[in-house]
From TrEMBL:
Assigned EC number: 3.6.-.-
Organism, scientific name: Lentibacillus kimchii
Name of this protein: NUDIX hydrolase
InterPro entries: NUDIX_hydrolase-like_dom_sf, NUDIX_hydrolase_CS, NUDIX_hydrolase_dom
Keyword Hydrolase: yes
PROSITE patterns in the cross-refs: NUDIX, NUDIX_BOX
Signal sequence, renumbered to the chain: none
Gene3D superfamilies in the record: Nucleoside Triphosphate Pyrophosphohydrolase
Cofactor(s) for this UniProt protein: Mg(2+)
Length: 181
């Protein structure tokens, strides 16, 4: 791995926002040449695959400004500072769907866009969902609609590109591969 190592010689933060920090690094390449790297720093996020007792997957549909369209996705959210991913999973599940579960089961973690971002996504499975009488309020600038789909319906949404993001496609592949439904 060291033969591919790049050494940072200078780093400049050009934006430090609520969700991301953007920096530009000057790096020394393995062959001694130099280059620039534009990087997004992110606290990390959690996605949760909620499956009802009726074997339906709970999704949320929301508008995604970078894409200028709505997508159907599994519930997800950003890690808060110092928060364990399993706590984030439970919080996002309740806020976005009105459901809870005793213990979400960790599936895996992965980098979302390692070519320019350090965001780590933690993926959980929540089965035997229970509705929450008084769910926690979601983000005030978040407008979502809840959908409950069978695995076959979700796969059709993938074909139609209504489901078109990596974490949700991964979730569907996980459920299909393990023949969970």
């Amino acid at each position: 791995m060291k033969k591919f190592m790049e050494t940072t010689t200078q780093s400049e933060t050009i934006y430090d926002g609520r969700i991301v920090k953007v920096q530009v690094d000057d790096v020394m390449l393995p062959d001694g040449k130099t280059s620039k790297r534009e990087l997004i720093k992110h606290a990390g996020a959690v996605g949760i695959i909620p499956v009802t007792k009726a074997n339906k997957i709970v999704f949320v549909e929301q508008f995604r400004k970078p894409l200028e369209k709505s997508l159907v996705e599994i519930p997800a959210g950003k890690l808060e500072k110092g928060e364990e991913p399993s706590v984030t999973a439970l919080r996002e599940l309740e806020e976005e769907t009105g459901y809870t579960v005793n213990t979400p089961r960790f599936i895996t973690s992965f980098y979302t866009s390692p070519g320019f971002a350090d965001e780590m996504m933690y993926l959980y499975l929540a089965e035997d969902l229970e509705p929450v009488d008084y769910p926690a309020a979601g983000d005030e600038d978040e407008f979502i609609e809840i959908l409950e789909l069978t695995l076959d319906e979700a796969k059709q949404y993938v074909r139609e590109q209504r489901i078109h993001d990596a974490k949700t496609n991964y979730a569907i592949l996980y459920l299909e591969t393990l023949e969970r439904m």
